[in-house]
Structure formats: C-alpha cells, structure tokens
Amino acid sequence: MRKRTPIIAGNWKMHLTSAEAIQLVDGIHYGLPFPGEVEVIVATPFLSLPEVARHLRDSYIGIAAQNLHFDDQGAFTGECSGKQIKDAGADYVIVGHSERRQYFAETDEIINKKIKAAYRNNLIPILCVGETLEERETGEFSAIIGRQLAVGLLDLTGPDAAKLIIAYEPVWAIGTGRTALAEQVEDVHRLIRVSLAFKYGGMVADAVRILYGGSVKPANSRELLTLPNVDGALVGGASLNAPDFIEIIKSID
Ligand code: PGA
Description:
This protein is α/β, with parallel strands linked by helices and 253 residues long. Helix content is 44%, strand content 15%. The protein has a single domain (7-250), classed as Aldolase class I (TIM Barrel), CATH 3.20.20.70.
C-alpha cells in the first residue's frame, strides 16, 4: 500500500494541435477507463488547454499548464497568468522546467515568484528540479538541487508545501533516451524528501509527491515507479502516444 497517491503526468511541450490533443486524450480516456489509484494529468500547450479542459470535464484526467507568469495581470506581451490558466480550466501548472531555465533564462528567484503566483490562483505547482550532466559529473548535483528547492520554495507555508508536486528531472536524461539509474533516482528523491522534512517537518515531507522525469517509457517505468521515494512520473515524449502513456500508468502497482 502506497503512502501517497501516485501521479503520472504527461508534458506535451510544444506539440499537438487542438484536434490532435482531443484525439490523444480520447485515446487515453477510452483506452483506460479505470486508471486505479493514480492521478493522471496532461500538461497541454496554452492554446489547446481550454478545449481539452472542457472536453475532459467528466474524465479522471486532470489538466496542467506548462508555465505561467508571476503576475496575475499586466503589460507582459505574450504571457499567460495563473488567473487566466485557472479560468481556462487547469488545476496544476509546471514551474521551472529545465527547458524554461535553459532557453528562457528562468532563475530560481523567478521560479519562486511563479510558485507563489500558482498558489495565489489555486493552482498546484509541479516544481521541476534537476542537474545538468556537468553538475552530475562534478558531484555538485546535490548542492544544485538543494539551492533549487531552497530558493524556489522560499516563504512557502507548511500547508502549501504539503500540496506541492516536485519532479526530479536530470537534464541529461530529458529527451535523450538516457534514463538515470534506479539508485541515482532513489538517492536524489530521498535527498529531496529529507530536505523537505528539515524545512517543513516529517508530515509535510511525507505528503509531497516526488515524480521522476527523463526518458520515462513503458520499458523502464515499472522499475522506476516501484522505488520507495518515487511517487510517479513526468513523461515527455512517451506521453504523446496513448498506448505508451497507458502502459506507463498501468505500471503503477
Ligand atoms: P522526456 O521529457 O520524457 O521526453 O525525456 C521529460 C520532460 O521534459 O518532462
């Protein structure tokens, strides 16, 4: 019996038109009518989000956005706020994905403001943390992840922290086909839980779901998802294909 309800979340990134998105979620919903004890989430592009959310109103599949602005409104051309995302039908939002950090210069300080904006708008953040290949090889990764958590979660209250979802995504494993070894994954997940316990106490640390992300696919999901501190997966490439995504959901025992 798991301590926490696991989550399988698909991160579609900048893929799929609205029609393709509807086809994909239908494939998931009808291909797996009863997912069991697991929360299933899809993180859609902004444009297809309202339509997918409307379409999934009576489905078990939850909706996330992939990013948000840290203000609720204002002169920020091209951005979307937490308020708008909530209004469009999402309940979750990915914050601080490594592609945002790398290509859009998101710092831990910006990410912290976004985490606050998510809570302000009743969105549950899925905070992504993870090291680059260089940081893994030099052994700096635990300090890097420690900083991402410390700054990213600055000023967060215990009750808010308990609702948080964290995704550990080693940058070198994203979209590369290279998955972290089971012991590397469990080590980092344990480290994250210990640092949450240190900051917020054991009850909060026990409540937070910590997902693994980085080349998760049906062939490796079972091994990763049975690790004691792994509470699910954030899936990129394999979430664009209904049968693969369903296989990953089914690999939760
Ligand atoms: P991937 O992406 O599964 O394609 O490696 C994971 C992610 O970036 O969230």
